[in-house]
Design goal:
Helix content is 45%, strand content 30%. It contains two helices and four strands; from the N terminus they run E-E-H-H-E-E. A four-stranded antiparallel β-sheet has the order 2-1-4-3. The longest helix is centred in the middle third of the chain and has 25 residues, at 24-48. It is elongated. The termini are close together.
Length: 86
C-alpha cells in the first residue's frame, strides 16, 4: 500500500524539537491531475525506449508500495532530521 502519512521530526540543539504529521493522501490527490496530464509523455517515452507501458506502470506502482515504512534520518551533533513514511 502506498504511504498515506509521514512524520517529520526536526531537532535543533538550542530549540525544542519540531514534530509534524503530514497527510500524504492529500498530496496523492493533488498530484493526480498532474499525472493525468503527463500520461501522454509517459506513453511516448515508453514507446521511444521500447518499454511495455503496462510493465513500466507496474514497476512504478511497486516502487511506490515499497516506500511504506521507510525511515530517512540524518543525525549530526547540532542538528537532527527524520522522516518516517506510514
Amino acid at each position: 500500500m502506498i504511504p498515506f502519512a509521514a512524520e517529520l521530526s526536526i531537532r535543533n540543539g538550542r530549540r525544542r524539537p519540531v514534530e509534524l504529521w503530514i497527510p500524504l493522501a492529500l498530496l496523492w490527490i493533488l498530484l493526480l491531475p498532474l499525472a493525468i496530464l503527463l500520461l501522454p509523455v509517459f506513453l511516448i517515452a515508453c514507446l521511444v525506449g521500447d518499454v511495455p507501458p503496462f510493465q513500466a506502470t507496474a514497476i512504478l506502482w511497486r516502487i511506490f508500495n515499497s516506500l511504506n515504512d521507510t525511515v530517512l534520518s540524518v543525525d549530526k551533533p547540532e542538528f537532527s532530521f527524520c522522516i518516517h513514511l506510514y
